[in-house]
């Protein structure tokens, strides 16, 4: 059956997508994967020059388009301005990827188990207390967690419209979470890991409430392990994978994830092939969770 061929199952021709944080790292991998399979992809971020550079470099003969669209996912006015632009140009949206994020406050001393701080409860507690702030945690949650709620709800009507223009098709929200929100170790950043855990649960909450209301919009998440990004470095050498992952045990794959593995996962969720998946979080981590403690 030709309908089971990969080029049919994964075909995104005619689909309209929006990827937040789409100018670099994982967001760029996903945007390129969607566009390569035929989608028109709007990439957003706060740095227009970065977005424009990506769009200019994209080879349209490969598949769909990549279009820059400035948007600050922590600002409701900016989100609504972007929504109105998509509404005016397209009238619908099929794929929303909530990818924008950052690391936030870190406590590097946690990685040195021989330091006096790590060997004394009072020193350890005070170092964490003094080294971080309510403000830094709040700012991190704004972009890593709160933005998922506000961007998704802003675009929900357009996603609903996208679901109704083709039989047997449902629009999809894909949230980029992280294995950091699933594992039981802090990796030197309590704020980031807890914010990603909140994003994972927010994915489940949104998928359930949207389904219960009868809106034909699926909500899933991708939880990456170590991939090249601005949070890690422009490229991850195999020997640096475990330094970045900061696990108790090394990554079984002995390398970072690839562009093809990230893009392929997103394309699956966005395409007809993944049309029966809703409320799930796909972990792509080279086996990190298999050998490190997780929830």
TrEMBL record:
For this protein, the record's CDD domains field holds: SDR_c
- Entry superkingdom: Eukaryota
Q: Which UniProt keywords apply?
A: NADP, Oxidoreductase
> What Pfam families does the record point to?
adh_short_C2
Database matches in InterPro entries: NAD(P)-bd_dom_sf, Sc_DH/Rdtase_CS, SDR_fam, Sec_Metab_Biosynth_SDR
Gene Ontology terms, MF aspect: oxidoreductase activity
The UniProt entry's sequence similarity note says: Belongs to the short-chain dehydrogenases/reductases (SDR) family.
Give the PANTHER family listed for this entry: 7-ALPHA-HYDROXYSTEROID DEHYDROGENASE, SHORT CHAIN DEHYDROGENASE_REDUCTASE FAMILY (AFU_ORTHOLOGUE AFUA_5G12480)
Question: What protein is this chain from?
Answer: Uncharacterized protein
């Amino acid at each position: 059956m030709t309908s089971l061929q990969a080029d049919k199952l994964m075909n995104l021709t005619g689909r309209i997508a929006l990827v937040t944080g789409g100018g670099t790292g994982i967001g760029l991998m996903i945007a390129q994967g969607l566009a390569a399979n035929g989608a028109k992809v709007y990439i957003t971020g706060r740095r227009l020059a970065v977005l424009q550079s990506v769009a200019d470099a994209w080879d349209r003969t490969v598949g769909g388009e990549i279009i820059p669209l400035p948007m600050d996912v922590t600002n409701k006015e900016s989100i609504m301005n972007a929504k109105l632009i998509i509404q005016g140009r397209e009238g619908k949206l099929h794929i929303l990827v909530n990818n924008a994020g950052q690391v936030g406050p870190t406590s590097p001393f946690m990685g040195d188990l021989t330091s006096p701080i790590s060997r004394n409860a009072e020193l350890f507690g005070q170092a964490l207390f003094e080294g971080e702030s309510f403000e830094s945690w709040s700012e991190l949650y704004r972009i890593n967690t709160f933005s998922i709620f506000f961007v998704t709800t802003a675009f929900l009507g357009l996603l609903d419209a996208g679901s109704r223009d083709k039989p047997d098709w449902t629009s999809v929200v894909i949230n980029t979470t992280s294995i950091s929100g699933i594992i039981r170790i802090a990796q030197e950043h309590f704020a980031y890991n807890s914010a990603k855990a909140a994003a994972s649960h927010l994915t489940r909450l949104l998928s359930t409430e949207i389904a219960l209301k009868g809106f034909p919009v699926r909500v899933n998440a991708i939880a990456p392990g170590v991939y090249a990004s601005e949070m890690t470095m422009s490229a991850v050498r195999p020997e640096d994978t475990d330094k970045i992952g900061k696990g108790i045990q090394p990554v079984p794959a002995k390398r970072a994830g690839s562009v093809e593995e990230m893009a392929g996962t997103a394309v699956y969720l966005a395409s007809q092939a993944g049309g029966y998946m809703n409320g799930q979080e796909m972990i792509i981590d080279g086996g990190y969770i298999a050998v490190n403690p997780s929830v």
